[in-house]
Every structure is written in structure tokens, then in C-alpha cells.
Amino acid sequence: MQGPRLLIAPREMDGGFDPRSEIRGAGPWVLSDYRPSAGLTFARNPNWYRQDRPFIDRWEMPIITEYSQRLAQFKAGNIFDGSLRFEDVLPTKRDLPQLDMYTSEYTATVEPTIRFGLGTPDSPFWDQRVRQAFSMLIDRETWVRVFGAVDEFEAVGLPMEIRWMTHAGVEGGIPPQDRNFGPNSKYYFLDVAEAKKLLTAAGYANGLTTDALYRSDGQAMFSRYDALVGMLSEGGIRVNVKVVDRVNEFDAKVRQGKGDWSGFSFDIGAASPTAYAFLWRRYHSQGTVFAGFDPDGRNRRRGDPKVDDMTSKMIREPEPQKRQALVDEFLRYMAGTMYEVPAGGQSLGFRLAWPVVKNFGVYRTRVPGVENDVHLWLDQSRPPLGSS
Amino acid sequence: MQRYILQRILLSVPTLIGITLLTFFGLRLILPGDVIDTIVGEYGRNDPQLRANLEEELGLTGNLPVQYLKWMGRALRGDLGTSLHSGRSVTSELKRRVPVSFELGLWAQATAIIVSVPMGVWAAVYQDKFPDYGLRTLAIFVNAVPGFWIAILVITFGSLWFQWAPPIQFKSLTEDPIAHLKIMATPAIIIGITPSGGLIRLVRTQMLEVLRQDYVRTARAKGLGNGTIFYQHALRNALIPVVTVIGVGLPGIIAGTVIFEQIFVIPGMGRYLVDAVNIRDYPVIQGLNFVFALLLMLAVIIVDVSYSIIDPRIRYK
């Protein structure tokens, strides 16, 4: 039963101690020092059962919220993994050729998925044609190439793989470019002329004006949102941007669908590998983050019975291949309805780390936390600690 | 003088109470959002029993005036409550963080004074000549450029050109004084640069006014040297308004360190406040506001008292 969201906890946690201020658990390292706003220090757990591994004696994890500071610290060798933006990977590698370069992973949770506000009867997004047009105005290929620095990597001979976001993330299901996706794949491809025809058929021959809600804590993504807004303007969709508080406006209106708002907003995409569970939470009418839609345009809390049926079947199916087939079928259906528009995509880019860290990026699981880090060890003869 | 100081302290009390009232009720009635929503997140949002349990546990039940009086009663005993998110004592966190921010502010202010006073005097002495024009231009430039932008440039180009980055592993003064000073040096200098622009111009203006006074002409006629005239006679009188600005500006500098604490990974009050506001941690926000208000009032009282030291003609009754 143990999983990323279901933790085995000690019995004492039920009233025995305060987990907010005290850490108890089991793992290769124990928290030896916590300096709020500054950093954490983990010391090696001498009682961890894997005695045959060269676990790192001490982890220092400074909390660096400012990206330029993080980049500078990485270049100076004060931190060994800088989690650099894609556009900084090649320049940094050129400045410091001794760095090791690894392929990165897809992280779909940071890619935008557009959600529509259906709280008012006159919202244009009740009309499926408007939603489809919306999707066809997005140049996903260019978006990924720019924000994934694909051209820069390809120019130096590095192979790049591009995946577009779907309702199941970038890896959760059949990609729209696959010939087996079906006729609804056309709604993922850029086609400004067709989008304008759809808008005209929906009664918006002169385009439309709508609001876009940006999450207040998502400033790092604003430039990407602005790019999408620019694409929409080519099809006549004019946008008023509003930055709203994350917890109390965005979550309540967009993620919970409780507000009477019209317009659209950017939410995060699906999380793999449990895409099917995510899809239920998000698109089933009883899901915890169901934002609200329905096929008839009458009651957004009703949901789509077909979507409810598909997502329910997914989570009940124990056989992985059959479950994947159900997810793919769901994606084909959602491509036609576009209740939400998966807007972005990712390239399988690269990341840098100092050579001192061994097994970096070798063992990758989808489980966050220590599972990826437990295999790391330090070769102190390598930079920046050594010079070989 | 003691009577004056006591009077000022007593007069500060209603102001402090007013600030705590505004903060307490403003957080709960005006600021959008609810700390319970922030804690439960999307998973518990639709669970009313969970909300009720949390409200009980965090002391957020009952009417607001009663909650305020309870908080005030504890605050007067030095207990500012516990963080709603981390469970840590606010007082103990502030004991750790206030000295850090205060020290950073003092270093920054010292930088501003060391830079701006001599430059202001120099600009006044060479009025309408090249040094004056140059320094006034510099002062305007420094005033116009945001300090956090300078900080990011220093970090970015430091790493690009010199493979250098400021230290980020914070050490307290008692733990490792040298490492501590290394951590504080870069942000203190950068923070101090921004107010120095205004101070240069203020010192210059005040000096020009004082240098035109009769007693300065008398001092020159008596054959006193420029150094004695400028620094012993003129500057002392020119400093009175400057001291006001420096003294009243110190809490502002301390409050303004929030961005620099984020950039330079310094665990001070500013960063604590930003984190608390983002997650609606009421006791932390209230405690910090209380401390900021207290600091500001103390600074104003100290500035007033210092007038009588700088200018013997000023006496308080």
C-alpha cells in the first residue's frame, strides 16, 4: 500500500509528536539540522540496512529561491546540481567543459493546461467549436522548440525528442502526431484559417475578448503564458491578463470550479505515471479538482457522462496494457471536446552536474524523493572537490 | 531628558496597540484568503469536519476580539504564539532572525553613511565644479537603480567573469565570525548603496546652507583651516536633518532587506515575513509587524534624543 501519496507513518504520529517540527522516519539519511529559509542538513543514518553502499555522509541542501543565485552557485562549484533552465545548459557547458551533461526527464507537471471558466451563461467557451479553435491557434511545435532550446541543442549535434502535452501529460498516452490517434488529432495542430472558420461558425467572426487568469506564484511561467496569448491573438482572441492569488482565487475558481468566472486560465498538466488516477481526479464529475464542464452547455457541475464512464473504467482496470488502451481512447475523445486544452509540450533536454557526483541521473524512478538519490555517491577526486 | 524619554515611550503605547489591532483584524477581515484553505489544500477543501478540527487546534475559533485579547495578553508576556504551519515558536524564531536583519540593516546603513557623508561634503566644497556634477549624477543614478537589480548583476557577472559566487551557508557571528562577515559583506554594501544617493544630496544641501552662515565666515576670518571648518564646525550642524533621515530610514532598510535575504539566502526577518504572508501564517505576521513597529518607534526616539547630543542648543523639557 506504500506509495508516493500513501505513507507508512509511525504510530506515535497520531498525537505522539508534532510532525511539523519533528522528523521521524526511516531512510539512509536523517535530518540533522533545519534552518528555516536557509537550508537543511541531512546526516548519514548509521543504522540503515544497506551497509554495503557508499552513502554520502552529509547532504547540505540550501534553499535558494533566486535562480541567478542558484546558477552562480552552481558555476562556482558550491552546489553540484543546479537544475538549470534549458537555455542556460549549453552556455554553462561551454564556460565549464568539465561539467557532465545528462539527458533530463519529462516533467509534465510544469506544463500548462488551459482551463475554461464556465461560470457565466454567456461564456464563449461553452461552445465546443470555440475550444477547438482555441487549441488550433497554439503552435505547439514552436513553443517547445523555443522554451526547450531545441534548436540550440540540435545545432551542436545533440539529438532532441519533442512531445506535445495531452490530457495525460507528455508521456501518459498516445501522442497526437501518431497516425493511430485518429481524426481528432487535427485539433492539436496549428491551423489559423480553420480556427477562424470555427470561430465564425460559433458566432465570433470578429474574434472575441476574454480574460486570462495567471497564478500569482507562477511568475517563472509568465513569459510562456504570454507567448500563448500572443498566438491566440493571431486568431482574433484578444486577452485581458489578470494575475490572481494562487490559494484563494486561483485554487477556488480554477481548480475547484467554484467561482463564477469567465475566461481561461493556465493550470498544471497531468502527472505520470499514475496518469489514469490523475485523469479521474480532474475530469470525472466527482473528482477533487474537477473544474466543471458538460457536453450540453447547461450545468457545468454535471460533467460529461462519457468522460465519467471512461475515467471510472480506467481506474478499475488492473491490467496495464488494457488500462493504457482506455487512456488512449480517452485522449482521442478529449481531443475532440477540448474541455481543457493541453497547451505546451516538452523536449527531452539535458541537464548538468559536477563530475564529483556519481550515478547522477542513472537510476530514475517516478517516485519523488530519496529513491532517486539513494544511489548517488561522491568521487572526491573529481571537480569541483578534486582536479582529476 | 529622562522625563522626555519616558513621555515618548508612553505615547508610543497607544500607537503600538493601534498597529496590532489593524494587523490582527486586517489579516482576518481584509486580506483575501484563509489559512485553513492554505493548510488543507485541494484534498481537504471539501471536508468541513477537517476544517473545524483545524480551527480548534490552531486557536482560530471564537470571536475575533477575544482572540485578539488572548494574543495581546500572551504578547505582553513575550509569547508571540506559534506558527500555524511549522508549529515553531514565533518568539524563538524572531530571536534568531531579528539580530540577523538588524545587523544587516546596520551594516547597510554604515555603508551608506561612510559613502555618502564624505561625498556629500566633497560635492558641497566643490559646488558647481566637476566633482559636484559627477557626484550629483552618481547620486541620481544610484537612487534610480533598484538595489536588487544591482545584486543580481553582481551575482551574475561575478560568476561569469570570476567564477565567484557569494557564500550561502549562513553562519552566525558567534559560530564563525569570519564566515559570517563574508556572508553579510556583499548584501550590506549593495543595500547601503541605494539610500546613499539621497544622503549624498542631502549632506551636500545641508553643507551648502551651513557654509553660508556667518559663523563659518568668522571661522575663515580667524584663519582656521578648511578641515576644521568643514568637519568640526559645519558638518556637525549640517548633520541634524541627516541624522533624522538616517535614524528614521533604518527600520525601512531593515524591512527592505526582504528581497536581499531571498537573493543572498540570509535567514532574516524579511524572508520570514514573505513566507508567512504567502501561507497566511497569522501569528508570524502579527509578531513581525509588532517588532517592526517597535523598532521604528525606538528609532524615532533615539533620533530625537540624538539631536540634543549633536546640537547642544536643543534641550527637551
Could you please describe the fold and organization of this structure?
- The complex is a heterodimer of chains A (388) and B (317).
- In chain A, 30% of the residues lie in helices and 18% in strands.
- Chain A contains 12 helices and 14 strands.
- In chain A, α3 (128-136) packs antiparallel against α6.
- Chain B has 12 helices and no strands.
- Chain B has helices spanning 2-30, 35-40, 48-57, 64-76, 90-125, 130-144, 147-162, 177-211, 214-221, 226-264, 269-278, 282-310.
Give a summary of the structure in a few sentences:
With 388 residues, chain A is of the alpha+beta class. Chain A is built from 12 helices and 14 strands.
Characteristics of this structure?
heterodimer; A: 388 residues; alpha+beta; five-stranded mixed β-sheet; 12 helices; B: 317 residues; mainly alpha; globular
Question: How do the helices and strands follow one another from N- to C-terminus of chain B?
Answer: HHHHHHHHHHHH
If interface size is counted as residues with C-beta under 8 Å from the partner's C-beta, which chains form the largest one?
A-B, 34 and 40 residues
Helix content of chain B: over 70%
* Whole-number mean pLDDT of chain A: 84
Strand content of chain A: 15-25%
Query: What assembly state would you assign to the polypeptide chains in this entry?
Result: heterodimer
Which overall shape of chain B is indicated by the principal axes computed on the Cα atoms? globular
Q: What's the alpha carbon Rg of chain B, rounded to whole Å? A: 24 Å
Overall outline of chain A: globular
Helix content of chain A: 25-40%
Main sheet makeup of chain B: none
Distinct helical segment count of chain B: 12
Number of helices in the DSSP assignment of chain A: 12
| Number of DSSP E strands of chain A | 14
The poorly predicted ranges of chain A are none
**What is the average per-residue confidence, as pLDDT of chain B, rounded to a whole number?**
84
Series of secondary-structure elements of chain A, N-terminal to C-terminal = EEEHHEEHHHEHEHEHEHHHEEEEHE
Largest sheet of chain A: 5 strands, mixed
Report the structural category of chain A: alpha+beta
* Euclidean distance between termini CA atoms of chain A: 46 Å
Low-confidence stretches of chain B: none
